[in-house]
UniProtKB/TrEMBL annotation:
Quaternary structure (record): Homodimer.
Top-rank taxon, per record: Bacteria
Organism of this sequence: Sulfobacillus thermosulfidooxidans (strain DSM 9293 / VKM B-1269 / AT-1)
Similarity field: Belongs to the class-II pyridoxal-phosphate-dependent aminotransferase family. BioF subfamily.
Keywords annotated in UniProt: Biotin biosynthesis, Pyridoxal phosphate, Transferase
UniProt-recorded name of the protein: 8-amino-7-ketopelargonate synthase
Aminotransferase class I/classII large domain mapped to chain residues: 43-385
Positions bearing N6-(pyridoxal phosphate)lysine: K241
NCBIfam families documented for this protein: bioF (TIGR00858)
PANTHER family in UniProt: 8-AMINO-7-OXONONANOATE SYNTHASE, CLASS II AMINOTRANSFERASE/8-AMINO-7-OXONONANOATE SYNTHASE
Substrates-to-products reaction catalysed: 6-carboxyhexanoyl-[ACP] + L-alanine + H(+) = (8S)-8-amino-7-oxononanoate + holo-[ACP] + CO2
A GO term, aspect molecular function: pyridoxal phosphate binding
A single BP term in Gene Ontology: biotin biosynthetic process
Amino acid sequence: MSYWKEWVAKEEKLLREKDNWRTLPSSQGTAPGHIIRDAHHAVLSFASNDYLGLAHHPAMIEQAEEALRTHGTGSTGSRLLTGNSTILAELERALAAWKGTEAALVFPSGYHVNISVLAAVTTESSHIFSDAANHASIIDGCRLSRAKTFIYRHNDLDHLRQLLDASVGADRRFIVTEGVFSMDGDVSPLPELLHLAEEFEAVVVLDDAHGTGVMGDKGRGTLSAFQLHSDNVWQIGTLSKALAAQGGFVAGPRALIDYLINKARAFIFSTGLNPAAAGAALEAIKIAQDEEWRREHIARQAEFLRQGLKDLGYHVLAPGILRTPIVPVLIGSNTQALKVAQALWHQDIYAPAIKPPTVPPGTSRLRLAISAAHHEDDIERTLAAFRRIKSDLVGFDGTDEGTQHEYL
């Protein structure tokens, strides 16, 4: 046996014992609100981030094809060499106008943005204050930075204030939060958080990957939903969720964008975004602003599902201040979450179990994401499926490490 195979096998065994081994799902593609399991079988999907239902929109496909014909299949190099183009400049102007900022900068992915920005703006004397529920890319960005990182309890502003009060000797302070938290479906209390940031002279880095296109006036995001604007908020987002394209961006003051062009390593050393993704994203920004019905439809269907699951006795995490398209159903153990997900799959509904390390141990869940492509009968069918499997949850006594009880 090769020297490395033994320890790989041991790691796999440990993960399998905790029902935490992952494999790639098998499907032949997607359709609006569905995944295609085989040539004759579509499965209702709540796993997609295609919130506005744009992934198969004819206008987006047309614009992607036009960008391919005009600019080719790839950008051929980093943005500082051959990878810049007129379509990327146009996309950045559209993002800045949409987000209400002076400028924007496009990266190959949202992950690239989060691992770049914090590392680019911090020193060994800087302090980062990060919400405990932040995405893995933010956690990795904190680790790659030279700053000292403090984790505050999820949306706990009293705890954040305590940490800020104790922050001594920092040359720069950054509060990092998501706008819409992807696993809990709630939002950051931005008005109070911005007040704290001003009091302690901190910059807010707002990852609005799950808010962009969905929240606020014309889908401008969570900051807009609270009717807030501040140059001390740097907005991060993706083009791959509600905008159904690919790539990431940061929007903020021109001085910040010019600085990142010179200092953000994942921008400097990555090939520029491909033209087709840029063309599709440009069209998606237009649709997101013009078609308010998509957000209204999402809000109605999400509330219908949320209330229906509550009425059945399931533990649905509360969205908090603002309603979002994410409906998390807390189950508890990995084993039971997998059982529920499998029971739904057998009824042609795809809602995969979300397990550690994505969520804390003992809080495995099903995360149901509503799309504008979902219809009322899809929600009724899903509620009927949950009703049929509920008897399998009642009285379940989980045995996973860290799990003390199951949620209904």
